[in-house]
Every structure is written in C-alpha cells, then in structure tokens.
Amino acid sequence: MLVSKPTQMPLAIAPRPHFLVFNLPGSMIENSMSARTKPEQSRAKVFLVDDHPLVREWLSQLIQREDDLTVCGEAEDTQEALTKIEETKPEIVIADISLKNTHGLELVKDLQVRMPSLPVLVLSMHDESLYAERVLRAGAKGYITKQEATKKILHAVRHVLSGQVYISEKMAARMVNKMVVGRADSQKSPIERLTDRELEVFQLIGKGQGTRRIAEELHLGVKTVESYRARIKEKLKLDDGTQLLQHAIQWVHSLQDR
After folding, report:
1. Which residues of the chain have pLDDT under 70?
2. Strand 44-49 to strand 69-75: parallel, antiparallel, or no bridges (unpaired)?
C-alpha cells in the first residue's frame, strides 16, 4: 500500500516594507522647525502698562502673534504695575506716559530704582520732542509715539531687548545736533524749561484738576503743589491762576489733537 507524503504548504512570506528616503536640504529642515510655535519658556515676556484697555488689547494681540514674544501681564496704573511686574518678572515693560492716578515718568523712575536691569519702552501719544529726552534721563531704554507704533512697535521691542536704545531717526538727529552744537537754556521753549514734576502738575491743571486733587493724586502736600504752580507761572511768564489754567488747557488739547 502506497502512502502519499503530505503536501507541504508553502510558507507565506510577508512583503518587505519599502521606505522612501528624502535628502532634504538643511535650510528646508530649519524653516520647517522654525515654523512651529516656540515653547512659552523661550519667548521673551512683555508687560503692558496703559490706562486704555483698547490699547492694551491691541498690543496684546499684536505681540501674541509673534513666535519670540509673549504678554505676561497688564496694568493700568503705577502701583498695580509695580506689584505685578515683581510677580511676573518680565524681560521688557511697555508703558504709557499718561497713566491712571499718576505719571508714567514716575513708573520709569521707580523701576529704575527697584529693577535697574529691566528695560522700559515708553509708548505715548505725546510729542517725542518734549518727552523722549525726559524718559531716557529717567532710565527708559526707548520712546515711540502711538502714531509710529502701528508699524514699528515690534521692531522697537526687539531693538530694546537686544540691549539698544530706541528712538526715531528724527529724534536721534535732534539729540546728536544738540550735543554737538549745544543749546543754552534760554533757547529752550518755556514748556521744555519745566522740570518733570512741574510738567506733571501743569498737565493735571490742564485736565481741570484743582490744587487739592493734584496733591492727592501725586501724594504731595497742598503747599508743595502751590509752590509748583508759582514756579510754573514764573517760567511761563503768566500773571495769575486764570492764565495758568487757560494755558494748561490749551496745551493739553494740543497734545490730544496731534
């Protein structure tokens, strides 16, 4: 009797997977990686100080779209700013000159004392010819007007973060010319001859605030404010309080119209 051998079934061999290898140029790989959003830790932290919520919102949206920058906090006045800045530890502060209950110059000076290595970029509607030198003397690292900020604020922020001082080309030329040629105090405009505090009082007078209210807002005595008023009248060659009020109101309105 013949016994047939069992038929040997062929082994099923899985097909070998095929891999496609691309030699990508280095630049393409770098661009692909840079297109991804950087982690929060590697983005420079920016703190915003402005008494107008819409301005803070505009700045925040503008900054948050950038891969290398992020907003870490906001404030509308000096006291709130000082508290939150100590908590959030930003790498740069963008601050307005006109703040709720105080003046931006005082914030710059306070930060210069408390955190001298923290750069401040001042953003303001006020004419840079009047305030740029004042904020730089107070310790700020840059000044940009809100009219200019629409196109150049991000450039200004990165410029200051790199350790440089930012002012407009026009203002830089003016300051260099002043250093080279020199200018006597008698050649300054009457407003330029006011000290920072006198200018602050003058601006509050122009906003319709009386002596007692100014004293409360600036944390000064009433007699001290009266002394400032007397010195302002003398420097601006004004005869009385009525002329001082009219002159201050006109000046404040002229700033708002620019």
Report:
1. 1-41, 101, 178-179, 181-188, 255-258
2. parallel
